[in-house]
Amino acid sequence: MATPEEQAIEFKNQGNKAFAAHDWPAAIDFYTKAIELNDKEPTFWSNRAQAYLKTEAYGFAIRDATKAVELKPGFVKVRLVPQSSTTSQTFRLRARLTTPTGSRPTTGERRHMRPS
């Protein structure tokens, strides 16, 4: 029988497949199941944040991205950037895209990037 950590990774992998198929609600469900089994893994939180962005659920995306950074300060996949406006203080969630070597990806590479 698989450990909870192994089950969580399997849910994350299923979430990645749903994300690649542009099935954002299913991806969110799988990432949520992974988080329920292991809420200490920042990748699960950042992947769900990315899926929330695709559904335009920005508040949930910011919450999950914040949690990922709390779990692993300096987490390179997400960062919150304050953006001031004349009407209110707002926040934008920005994905920081890097290749495995740390360089900026080309347009072609960005097109193929998926949650980890």
From TrEMBL:
The keyword Repeat applies. InterPro entries: SGT, TPR-like_helical_dom_sf, TPR_BSK1_C, TPR_rpt. GO terms for cellular component: membrane; TRC complex. One of its GO terms (molecular function) is molecular adaptor activity. One of its GO terms (biological process) is post-translational protein targeting to endoplasmic reticulum membrane. Keywords: Repeat, TPR repeat. Residues 95-116 are annotated as: Disordered. SMART domains: TPR (SM00028). Residues 7-75 form the Serine/threonine-protein kinase BSK1-like TPR repeats domain. Coiled coil: none annotated. Signal peptide: none annotated. This is Serine/threonine-protein kinase BSK1-like TPR repeats domain-containing protein. It comes from Parathielavia hyrcaniae.
